[in-house]
Amino acid sequence: xxxxxxxxxxxxxxxxxxxxxxxxxxxxxxxxxxxxxxxxxxxxxxxxxxxxxxxxxxxxxxxxxxxxxxxxxxxxxxxxxxx
Length: 83
Known about the structure:
Strand order of the largest sheet: 1-2-4-3
Distance between the termini: 18 Å
Number of domains: 1
CATH architecture: 2-Layer Sandwich
CATH class: Alpha Beta
Helix content: 25-40%
Order of helices and strands: HHEEHEE
Shape: globular
Structural class: alpha+beta
Radius of gyration: 12 Å
Number of helices: 3
């Protein structure tokens, strides 16, 4: 997960973020949706991810230590570092 956060830090382009996340999570399953939310007042953003199955989400949670919400959904908090 540390490398994923490093790769995502400072990224502002949602398409690039989607590509990075999809590539990293592809060994667990398919990313079916991804939304990037800025957090006003915080120096970070949230990335909300939906996987193609509950099993894929569980594998990503266990393999990378990601947080979950719902059966197929994951969340990553990413610092707005400078790339």
